[in-house]
Amino acid sequence: MRAIGVIRRSRREGTSREEFEELLRSAGYEVVAIIEQNREEHPRYNIGKGKLEELRKLVEELKPDKVIFANRLTPSQAYNLWKELRVEVIDRWQLVLEIFEKRAHSKEAKLQVELASLQYEVPLVKEAIRRIKLGDRAGFKGMGEYQTRQYLKHIRYRMGRIRKELERVRADREVKRKRREEVGFILIALAGYTNAGKSTLLNALAREDIEARNQMFTTLDTTTRRFKLGGKRVLATDTVGFIDGLPPFIVEAFHSTLEEIVKADIILLVLDASEPWAEIKRKFLASINVLRELKALDKPMIVALNKRDLTTEEDVRDKAERIEEIVEERGINVHRVVSISAKLGQLEELYDALEEVILTLPKYGAFEITVSEPEKVPQVMAMINAIGEVLEVEYGAETRIRAYVQTGMIKELTRLGVEIKRQSREDE
Predict the structure, then answer these.
(1) Is 214 annotated as belonging to a binding site?
(2) Residue 315, marked binder
(3) Which residues are listed for GTP binding in this entry (predicted)?
(4) Would you say 281 is a known binding-site residue?
(5) Is 239 annotated among the ligand-binding residues?
(6) Where are the domains of the chain?
(7) Residues 202, 224: contact at Cβ < 8 Å?
């Protein structure tokens, strides 16, 4: 499929040409031309009339299959552009949905993509009905008014069915999540801009080999893997990548997936340290905006500057300091900014930061466990080692064990007939 790309920049909005071209390639388009314009939005065509004429000549000359705008188009603008160019015109978010459709493999991901696509289509169908009443065009995709109205009803019915199915998926995931907490897992969500290296980091943490390609939106399904950090059992979940200006309809459609971030104990925000500072700053702030929309900024957060092997130590330190300045200026809840190379397994700073954060979690703390029956000591020790970390053991008529334990497992320990006393932060 051949495409012409269009980028309009203004004081309020702007798109990275490199990112837009990467989106086009990820969707499988051959980019035959890209035109750019700096101006405020034209209400009728998005771009100015002079640039529209330039675009019309390019379409006549290059005969692309589509014209793709890096900006969001209103339904009216999309129709006006189609009328002038006589070629299919889509915008950035339709392009993203095309990529999502190619990447969706599980039933849940396919349902989420379908829901987002239908939500996007609703205003287009409404615009088609309005145009019919004005006598301006024949329906939506060649349908008449009655067929178009029936199609709108079908869209709304289908959206309702998908939401119910996704609600069931969400309920099942909540049951699994609670069980994981009960058996002593700390939950970490890997979040961040698309193609920052989250899947590669998950591989490095879990020492597994999950698909990790150097392209946008490789991960649409949540992938959860376990690993041990000291004596602590941890579950890390890879989530769908963010993108600048992620629209509400995509956030809503992927709510059951993005909820993994909301329910996590710790957010691990991954950035690509090898990119120019301007790009890192833009992607960091875009990610923070998504987390704010998800109401997840109250979670403990670690920012991981990944791919440090692709730049210098001095460059990474400078970028880390700049992020810390932004964090301080804006009052963002970030515990630490660390540098890593997921590809090379260089995660020492990250492990240290995670250890620090885990010890501050309400669900994880220091306890003194008193075992009065000697024959139960091995069983109690084995359970603690499985769900926490033994700090000190004092043997005697009664065995006293001081340990870090996930609070969800206290009930399991008490069933063994032991006495458990939580220690104060000062004692810890």
Answers:
(1) no
(2) no
(3) 192-199, 217-221, 238-241, 306-309, 341-343
(4) no
(5) yes
(6) 2-90, 104-164, 184-358, 364-422
(7) no
| Residue entry with tokens 């490789």 | 218
Q: Is 48 annotated as a binding residue?
A: no
Q: Is 371 known to sit in a ligand binding site?
A: no
CB 1 within 8 A of CB 29: yes
pLDDT tens-digit series, residues 190-239 = 998 888 889 899 999 988 765 555 555 565 667 888 888 876 778 898 88
246 is in an annotated binding site: no
Written as one string, the DSSP assignment of 116-143 is HHHHHHHHHHHHHHHHHHHTSS-SSTT-
Q: 219 among the known binding-site residues?
A: yes
Model pTM score: 0.78
Q: What is the CATH number of domain 364-422?
A: 3.30.70.240
Same fold, 2-90 and 364-422: no
- 120 labeled part of a ligand binding site: no
Q: Is 176 annotated as a binding residue?
A: no
Q: Which CATH number fits domain 184-358: 3.40.50.300, 3.40.190.10, 2.70.98.70, 2.60.40.10?
A: 3.40.50.300
Q: Residue 217, annotated ligand binder?
A: yes
Distance between CA atoms of residues 85 and 78, nearest Å: 10
Quick one: which of 224, 219, 362 has its CA closest to 298?
A: 362
Which pLDDT tens digit goes with each residue over 22-75?
889 988 999 999 999 999 999 999 999 999 999 999 999 999 999 999 998 998
Question: Any known ligand binding at 196?
Answer: yes
Left (φ > 0), alpha (ψ -120 to 50) or beta: where does 184 sit?
left
Is residue 15 marked as binding?
no
Strand extents, DSSP E, 175-217: 185-192
- Which CATH class for the 2-90 domain? alpha beta
- Could you give the dihedral angle defined by the CA atoms of residues 308, 312, 315 and 317, in that order, rounded to the nearest 10 degrees? 60
230 annotated as belonging to a binding site for a ligand: no
Burial 25-34 (b: 16+ CB within 10 A, else e): ebbebeeebb
Is 221 annotated in some ligand binding site? yes
Can you give the C-alpha Rg of the chain in angstroms?
A: 26
194 annotated as ligand-binding? yes
Q: Report CA-CA distances (Å) from 262 to 169, 294, 416.
A: 16, 7, 34
309 is in an annotated binding site: yes
Is 197 labelled a binding residue? yes
